[in-house]
Amino acid sequence: MRVLIATDAWHPQVNGVVRSIEALRREAPALGAEILPLTPEGWRTVGLPTYPDIRLALVTAARLGPRIEASAADHVHVATEGPVGLAARRHCLRVGRPFTTSYHTQFPDYLAARLPVPRALSYAWLRRFHNAGRGTMVATASLADDLAARGFSRLMRWSRGVDHALFRPRERVGLDLPRPIFLSVGRVAVEKNVEAFLRLDLPGTKVVVGDGPARADLEARYPAARFLGTRTGESLAEIYASADVFVFPSRTDTFGNVMLEALASGTPVAAYPVPGPRDVLADGDAGVMRDDLGEACRAALAVPRERARAFSLRYTWSASARQFLANVASARAGARA
Prior knowledge:
Layout: E1 2-6, H1 16-27, E2 34-38, E3 45-48, E4 51-57, H2 61-70, E5 75-78, H3 83-95, E6 99-102, H4 107-112, H5 119-131, E7 136-138, H6 141-149, E8 155-157, E9 181-185, H7 194-198, E10 205-209, H8 215-221, E11 226-229, H9 233-242, E12 245-248, H10 257-264, E13 269-271, H11 277-281, E14 287-289, H12 293-300, H13 305-312, H14 317-336
Parallel strand pairs: 1-2, 1-5, 5-6, 6-7, 7-8, 9-10, 9-12, 10-11, 12-13, 13-14
Antiparallel strand pairs: 3-4
Helix pairs in contact: 1-14, 2-3, 10-13
C-alpha cells in the first residue's frame, strides 16, 4: 500500500510532526507499505513571521492535484492544516478521493497566545477542515475526548514512539555544569511556556535546548540559564542522558515526543498534570506531575533512571506505524462500504 502524506511541516523544521513522518517512512516497508511525503519542497515558499525555518508553500489544489495523482498513491493522509494540507484536502474533495487527517497542534491556543482570535472561531474552522475526511488521527485519549466534545467526528488514535537506539542511557559527559541539571527541549516560543520553567527556584542549572522567537528575550532576562540552541542526533541524545530531570512546561502540546526521548535516555520527567503529560505519564512512575512545577522537578530527582528507561520501552515507532496503517485500512474500508 502506498500512502501519500501531505504535510507543511518538513525539513529544516525540527518538531514532532516531522519526526513522526520520518519514523513512518522507516517502519512502513517492513509492514508492507510505502510512505510518500508531499511537502513544500519544490514550491515557491514564504517564511512564517517570527519562524524563519517554517516555510509556507504558495500552492493551489489545481497545481498540487496532478502530483497527487501521479504518485499512484492508494491513500492520501493530510497531516497539517497549512497551504499543502489545504490544497491536498481540496483536491481530494473535488475528485472524490477519500482521505484522512491528523490533529497535531492546538492552533486555537497558539493563536490566542498571540492574537485576539476567539478559540470558538478557530475550532469551528478546524472542525470543518478535519470532519471532511474519513478519520482524524489524534495522539492521546484526552485529546480525542476534548475534540469529540467540540464536534469532531471519526476520531482515531495514533500514538507515538521513540528511537531507543539513539536515545539511551549513556555516560553523563554532555553537560559540564553545576548539578542537578534541569533540562527543557523544544521550540522557544510563548506557547511552549518556557518562562514557567525559567522562573522556578531550583538548585543547580537550568538548560534550554531549542530555538525560536522568544529566545533572545528569555536569554537576556534569565542570564543564569544556559541556552544551547537547536541540537539533533548524537549531540541531543548526549544532552538528554546527561540531565538529571527533564522539565516539560507546556500546557498546550497534544503529545510531547521530547518526553519519550528523555525517558528513553534514562531521565525522569517533571510536568504539569495536563493533557499530553497526563496521557504519557499517568499510568507509570517514570515522572512527576504537579500543579507546582518546581515541586514536580524536585520530586523527579528521586525517580530511578532505570525506571524511566524501562517505562519508555512501551512506546515504539513500529507500534506507532502499525496503528497508523490500521487507521488507514479502516478508513479505506469505510469509504468502500
